[in-house]
Amino acid sequence: DKAGFKHFMAKEIAEQPVVLQGALSHYITADGTGVTLPDPGIDFTKVERMTMVACGTAFYACLVAKYWFEQVAQIPVEVDVASEFRYREPPVTPGTVALFVSQSGETADTLAALRYMDGKADKIVSVVNVPESSIARESDLPLPILAGTEIGVASTKAFTCQLTTLALLALNAAHARGHLSQEDLSAKLAALTGLPGLISQALGIEEKSRKISRKLVEARDILFLGRGAMYPLALEGALKLKEISYIHAEAYASGELKHGPIALVDKHVPVIVMAPRDALFDKTVSNMQEVMARGGKVLLITDKTGAKEAGEGVWDTITMPEIDPFLAPILYAVPAQLLAYHTAVAKGTDVDQPRNLAKSVTVE
Ligand code: F6R
Fold it and tell me: Which residue stretches, if any, does this entry annotate as coiled coil (predicted)?
């Protein structure tokens, strides 16, 4: 049931404030001071490193989580796509926690990677949407993301719920390891509690996204740029766009631009820059100016402060609500989703059932 929406994808994008609210109240204690994990939980003081493995959009959720676990919990994190990890057969040393992210919980490569780590890692954690799935059943600590059934092939609400669950786990780890005081933990949890409201607000960019998308349909290639935890969001934006609009899109870490991809830039290539006004903003802006100096059409996705400081001369701007930079990757999933969605609608492609793709990839 599309509940009055034209596509499941549109419904699932719109549902995000509600499902995120559900996930937050599932994991955050009633007094707002801590994170509850299902038994037997996890002793983060004994963790020396984490290995995160997934495919596609779930892999990008792991890439964001790497920034979170390394920065707030001081745990070194390795991330790999499941199809590479399983055949690379990396050595596993004591103190390793393996974490698998999968919406369906049935992705063949991710499941094979999990089975490889079984008996080698100290603990197997999974972040899944389907609680009775193989990946959930075969892990020591399955963490449900509570996104509800996702029908659109392009993952939307599952991605933001994966990120939210991973953010909560990272905060829990940081506190347990003594890197985050009780006061700071409570403050971050309060910020997370404000996330559904901010996502609702961010959904207000829909009209603007629709307008911009009408221009994006003419492009043959589109580049996405981001730095730090916004780099995986750039990857997600490019993947979403490719999947449902069939327009070629690539994402780069902003700093990589001058090492090759800038050669692609001319006046026909829209360059979408995802840059909240955070500590790395100025660096990203200088990369953006290099694009503009070569005639590239920049779409800047930033907040009010960012738009004021760097919005001059850009092709267009999408202004997002201000947010704690730690949580920005979750919020910036919204423009990635809406731009892909409206570009596909403008092109007239099959949004919910894109060609050549399956919702659950149970063969390798
Ligand atoms: C992208 C998308 C895919 C999946 C990937 C993993 O929109 O849906 O890239 O994220 O196939 O699937 P799960 O999460 O079910 O393991």
Answer: none
